[in-house]
Design a protein that fits this description.
The protein is mainly β and 98 residues long. It has one domain (4-76). The chain is 4% helix and 39% strand. It has one helix and eight strands; from the N terminus they run ββββββαββ. A four-stranded antiparallel β-sheet has the order 1-8-3-6. Strands 2-7-4-5 form a four-stranded antiparallel β-sheet, with no helix packed on it.
Length: 98
């Protein structure tokens, strides 16, 4: 399956990717500056679950957890990239603080 992206409107839990019993891998990457909370198999809420905080942060999910629905919560609009192939690995470069 090819890569995709979705924009979270913000303020409520939103479905990022539907359940798929044949999927074994998901990589989700924050591509914006608005932090996103992720939940697997249940609605996402603020300050709970996995948080992607900086642009470029990603989470890789494999196995049974990757087969369920994934939800995201952001306070404001946020862009999230999604890849469902097993051979993607993201390695962040150095982060420069200003």
């Amino acid at each position: 399956m090819s890569a995709s992206a979705t924009i979270l409107a913000g303020g409520s839990s939103e479905l990022l990717i539907a359940a798929d019993k044949n999927r074994d891998h998901i990589t989700i990457q924050l591509q914006d500056t608005a932090s996103v909370y992720l939940a697997f198999g249940e609605p996402a809420v603020t300050a709970t679950g996995i948080m992607l905080i900086y642009p470029g942060c990603s989470v890789r999910v494999t196995g049974a957890k990757a087969r369920g629905a994934v939800y995201g919560y952001a306070a404001g609009a946020s862009l999230v990239g999604i890849e469902t192939t097993e051979d993607v690995e993201y390695r962040p470069g150095s982060y420069i603080w200003f």
